[in-house]
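Extended Data, panel c. Modelled sequence:
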Amino acid sequence: MLTYQDQTFINFRQFTSGDHARRWVDIKRFGLSRPDADVTHLLTELIGQEQYRDDYAGGGVEVNGLRHGPYWLRNVSPAAYVRVDEASANAILRDWAAQFGPLPVALSARLEHEVHALVAGATERYQLKDLGYEAFHDWGGVHNDFHELVVIDRPAKALSLLVAADD
């Protein structure tokens, strides 16, 4: 039902230095063959995807991986996601992006075009909850910040996994 399409990686280092430079946004896009499927089914499919097996710490996707971000994959389920509205999703991302001060104009423009437009165009948005330290994998505390959103655009038959974090 979900078909991996492509990925966009926005590395803050290309735009700035200092505290901002250790951060990035990764967007993985999937096509929906059944856009009418319920969200639990869609999230289950996403979690089962090979592209979801990414520790986001430089190792990339591992076909038989056991990690997702800072968590053991076994600790992530559809119940780990909470629905959020557009304003809340954008606030999470904007607060995270600007935590060390104003962003360079070019970086702000790229985030508006690639990230915030995606959030705005979605019909549904879900945030991965903080699963707590006990859900971390063996070196899961490597990220200071890890924010994950799943945005679904049913008319466009698209689902995107959006991760904003640091390294």
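The chain has a mean pLDDT of 93. This feature is highlighted in the accompanying rendering.
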